[in-house]
Structures are given as C-alpha cells and as structure tokens.
Amino acid sequence: xxxxxxxxxxxxxxxxxxxxxxxxxxxxxxxxxxxxxxxxxxxxxxxxxxxxxxxxxxxxxxxxxxxxxxxxxxxxxxxxxxxxxxxxxxxxxxxxxxxxxxxxxxxxxxxxxxxxxxxxxxxxxxxxxxxxxxxxxxxxxxxxxxxxxxxxxxxxxxxxxxxxxxxxxxxxxxxxxxxxxxxxxxxxxxxxxxxxxxxxxxxxxxxxxxxxxxxxxxxxxxxxxxxxxxxxxxxxxxxxxxxxxxxxxxxxxxxxxxxxxxxxxxxxxxxxx
Length: 273
What we know:
Blueprint: E1 17-22, H1 30-41, E2 46-51, H2 59-69, E3 78-82, E4 93-98, E5 101-106, E6 120-124, H3 140-153, E7 164-165, E8 177-178, E9 182-190, E10 196-201, E11 213-217, E12 220-223, E13 237-241, E14 246-251, H4 256-260, E15 267-272
Parallel strand pairs: 1-2, 1-3, 3-5
Antiparallel strand pairs: 4-5, 4-6, 6-7, 8-9, 9-10, 9-15, 10-14, 11-12, 11-15, 13-14
Helix pairs in contact: 1-3
C-alpha cells in the first residue's frame, strides 16, 4: 500500500472524525478538556466516544476494544487513545497509520490488535505545542495527543509530527493451543454484561461439529457451542461465538463472571465429547 495517496489528513471542515478511547470515566473533566483543545483548533470535526470505561491502565482491554471498533469507521478516521499507566515516564507519544486508520496515543501496545502488523507506519509526536505552552507530566492526552489530532484534522501530515520509527511496542496476546482433539485457551476479557471473552477465535474451532464438543471453564463443563443466547434457559451457562468472532462463556440473564467466579487468566478448553 502506498501511503503517499492515502487521504489521512482531511481538511478542516471536511467531516474529519476523531474518536476517543480512554480509562478516564465520565466523573472528572479530563475528557472534556481534550475535546475542548480539539474543538478550539478544529471546530468542524466530529467527535465520537468509543468508550471511557476501559479498566484503569488495562492496555489489553483497550486493544480488544479497538480491534472491534475501528474497522467500523471510514478511512482517515483519527483514533485518540489514552490508556496510559506510563504517563510522564520515558514511554513515547506516537501516531500510527494502518489500513487507512490513524492512532494517536502512548507507545504501550494499545493498537496491537487494531493495526496490520505487516502494513503500518509510525511516527514520534515531537512537534506539537501544548495549549498552555507547558506539557503536564500527568496529562499528555490534553497537552500532546489532542494537539497532534488537531494538526492531522487540519490537514497536517503525520511526518510533520516527528521522525518515523519502526520499533513500536506491542503487547503479547497469548494464542490458543490448537490440536486435532482440543483447543486450549483462556479468558482474556469480561464485558459489561459479565460475559467471559476468550482468546479462542471461531477459526480455531472451524470445522468442528459444535454439538459434539464440550467447553470446560474452571470446574464447569458446557455441552456444545451454541449460536445465540436464547438456545438455553434463563440462568443456564452457554458457550457461543460472540459478535467479536471469539468464543464467549455466558450465563443467560446473569453475570457469568460473578456466577462462575471466573476472571481473565482462567483456562478454557474445547474438547471432544
């Protein structure tokens, strides 16, 4: 892919889109401050909240959220991401373009699952000015990342932000062990409903007769892999391929994490009945 012709710097007022993904919550003014900086410099952009409810400092949860969300947005969308437990340290501020989507945030692996590993470019963010003229050690979202988004939304090039880099941080997302007789994986995320999301993808069990296999999570055995929640009764445990394309464990109408006492890191095995 040639990045020379990608329309990532959309001119001001031409329906630029900037999304927000943070662990800030909505109680404090942090999100509003970043939006204020952006609207002060690029008042015609569209601001979209993906979520501000990432568990504090949970980079894997952030990566999983972006993996699902960014493919729904048009080319040239700018994704501002602030899940940044290393703020103020030596970790680098970066901007990355991959598959015509742009990511602006800390170099801590947040975009690991959202970028194409064989087709991306990354740049340091060095050449921006904080609105107050001084960068806070604890709020790079407002003082570095938001101004970088303004630069891009106004038509600035990624290369104007700083030097190109090749060694961006990527988090290690464990892959399941796949064999003829079983697939061994683990719970990696719990969603808002308490459903247990695993690292086992639909492709890992493709071709299996879903009705003749069982799923073991903790001390529980679940017969078959279903297609939708209403195939079981209220309060029953169910395994199914969710909208993320990953194997999920749920309890219909209840919170599976609480009912089963299972959390991220617990093993999940799909095996023959």
